[in-house]
Design a protein that fits this description.
alpha+beta; Phosphorylase Kinase, domain 1; Aminoglycoside 3'-phosphotransferase, Chain: A, domain 2; 5-stranded antiparallel sheet; 3-stranded antiparallel sheet; 9 helices; globular; kinase; transferase; Aminoglycoside phosphotransferase family protein; kinase activity; Kinase-like_dom_sf
Length: about 280
Amino acid sequence: MLEGWLGPWGIEEDLSWPLQDTRVLRVRSGHGEHIVKAARSGRPVSHHFTREIDAHLDVLAPLRRAHGDLPVPELEHHDRELGLIVTRFLPGSLVLGSAAEADPSVFEEAGRILSRLQVPGAVSADYGLRLAAAATELVGRARGLVADDRLDALLSLLSILSAPDAVAHRPVPLVFTHGDFQPRNWLVHDGRVSVIDFGRAAQRSWVSDLVRLRNQQFIDRPDLSEAFDAGRARPLTADDRELLTLETLRESVGTVVWAHGIGDADFEEHGRRMVERVLAQA
């Protein structure tokens, strides 16, 4: 398939993440450099391929046509059934683990990019209720992984957020979200920030894209949070803050359950710390 799309090609670098069901390769052909994402042989094609393809076709390509340059990869070829995506290579180094991860200007630019990407969608009458139901189900699955008193406290918080006049019952405007908006998916090149990997893209609340940053890079770094907010230029309302609590609650316990399932003990512990923070901040 790749030969038909690219002609002769060769691998320059394997960029695959551990514990993932996808191979990510930087390759070179006569047309230049590309990023190839491919489902690993013998495994089912992940739904992340469909999400990424849909993100490119339905949102990113129209944004590029409407507004010109967009700091995200450009889709060149895809095959849903095979689980195969080819994008034009974006030069740059990952922000994660580099000096750029502590640079407020990088976070300000990332905030500006996020504001461009979050294209408005429909208004959902039941988004909050579905989010609360998912969180409740995950709390049940986390029994034995998180202390019972912490899980009971999460359930109490969920009951508050799900009260008839609370956030779970309010209409939620949906937007296009990245789903994993954080420095491991940001590149920096010649002072310019770009965003990669749209495999978790979906229609969600806009605050859902804040959860991972607030539980990692923004801890003890208010300057990074302030810079990001300045770039994003969208202050949190009272409703936003309640919805962010609900999003974070679901994400925290979901992280514990998912990480335990794949045997990632460090990430499982990160989820437990998220649980403690969401309870402390509620």
